[in-house]
Amino acid sequence: MVWQTRPSEALATLANETFDVVVTDLQMREMNGLELCERVALNRPDVPVVVLTAFGSLDSAIAAIRAGAYDFISKPVELDVLSIAIERAANNKRLREEVKRLRIEAEAETWPRDRELVGESAAMRAVHDLISRVATSEATVLVIGESGTGKDVVARMIHKRSRRASAPFVAVNCAALPEHLLESELFGYVRGAFTDAKENHPGLFVQARGGTLFLDEVGDLPLLLQPKLLRALQERAVRPLGAKSEIAVDVRIVCATNRDLETAIEERRFREDLYYRLNVVQVPLPPLRARGGDILGLALGFIRHFASVSQKNVKGFSKEVGQKLVSYAWPGNVRELQNSMERAVALTRLEEICVDDLPEKIRDYRFSHVVVAGNDPAELVPLDEVERRYILRVLEAVAGNKTAAARVLGLERKTLYRKLERYGVETKS
Predict the structure, then answer these.
(1) How far apart are the C-alpha atoms of 351 and 47, rounded to whole Å?
(2) Is 70 exposed, middle or buried (0-12, 13-18, 19+ CB in 10 A)?
(3) What is the domain class of 116-286 according to CATH?
(4) What percentage of residues in the chain have a pLDDT greater than 90?
(5) Has this prediction a pTM greater than 0.85?
(6) Among 25, 31, 348, 384, which residue's beta carbon has the most beta carbons within 10 A?
(7) Which uninterrupted H or E stretch holds 255?
(8) C-alpha distances in angstroms, 339 versus 107, 112, 289, 307, 428?
(9) Strand partners for 257
(10) 152, 172, 252: which is closest to 220 by C-alpha?
């Protein structure tokens, strides 16, 4: 899209819309090109500026570059020269964006992100064993677990240990994009497919060729997109929006969700055939509260990391803090523990974290016990009430996942649903 306007309108438009390049004259009534260039460089440093002037001189060129211009062209302007300058500026912008993306990915690979699966508990040993066994296969993997347990870390570990490790690892959060954008991101589009499709765009399936495509939060995939994803998995080919033919793709699929997909199938929010296509090998991640002594080891690792980053001499935590950490339920799992330890390191004035440095909800947490009976006959309750309290406590422990709750309780899911309806508990996830 080409936009021609006055300097003030250009600045207002740049604040709300995306452009590849700004081309400006040096001599203008409202403000000169150097001032405009300075304003763009200050507010939108990602957009390169090409300055035009009939008063070409070395001083003007130096002034334009100092103002933040990417290039400087003297009038009369030859269209070929201007076209090359604009193309170079746009390519430079894309290159900077790619470098920024790669830097973010590189940072995401560093500790403590890839250390979130550290732990010697039986639950984590089972996870590591399953990862090592499935990584070398080509099977589709479904990682399940609560938010913050490290499902994305598992996906990266599987990729790194696979035969595809040297090829791309491409990730997309299915819950983060609206349906039309997610479709074009996954499958791509050709020029002219819709109004803003100015050039061909390879989708993530194509970008991940030879490597791994990680579909995070796949349980939130829009229902209308699910048949297209299923076909891509079955045919190992995708058809970009607006294209007349399919493109063969060789990718391994790893998915993750914190949703109860079996319940979603019953409620017609997720296709059963797609579920079985994705759920070839399932890797269940335990919540942090089920990992026992791992909590203290993780907390200590986070403290040392954040102490190093902030250059503070914090070596550990008090015994009272350890007791608080172990007794807390950690609904936000490892991510919540990481954030809590970062906060504690930032606030502490001592060499060891004290209880006062912890978030209030951790300091004041009281574990909820199921009361079965007491010594006072007035406290005794009917068997149905004991069952109700226990079922609700199990649901709380598994973060509302009814499939997991039924498994713990030894009940059929339909039986659990009937009991919950009798208790007046909402049965939709």
Answers:
(1) 46
(2) buried
(3) alpha beta
(4) 36
(5) no
(6) 348
(7) strand 252-257
(8) 17, 11, 16, 13, 31
(9) 144
(10) 172
Token pair of 172 as six digits: 């997309």
Please give the Cα distance from 396 to 29 (Å, whole number).
67
- Listed by start position, the domains of the chain span 7-106, 116-286, 289-363, 377-423
**CATH code given to domain 7-106:** 3.40.50.2300
Packing angle between helix 294-310 and helix 333-347, nearest 10 degrees?
40
**pLDDT tens-digit series, residues 223-280:** 999 999 999 999 999 998 888 888 889 999 999 999 989 889 988 999 999 999 999 9
- Parallel/antiparallel/unpaired status of strands 237-238 and 247-248: antiparallel
Q: What is the CATH number of domain 377-423?
A: 1.10.10.60
**What is the tens place of the pLDDT at every residue in 161-207?**
999 999 999 999 999 988 888 999 999 888 887 877 778 888 899 99
CA dihedral 55, 58, 64, 67 (to 10 degrees): -140
Give residue for tokens 């497919």: 193
Rg of the chain in Å (alpha carbons):
28
Q: Which two tokens stand for residue 420?
A: 């919950």
d(CA 23, CA 64): 12
Count of CA atoms in the C-beta half-sphere (13 A) of 56: 9
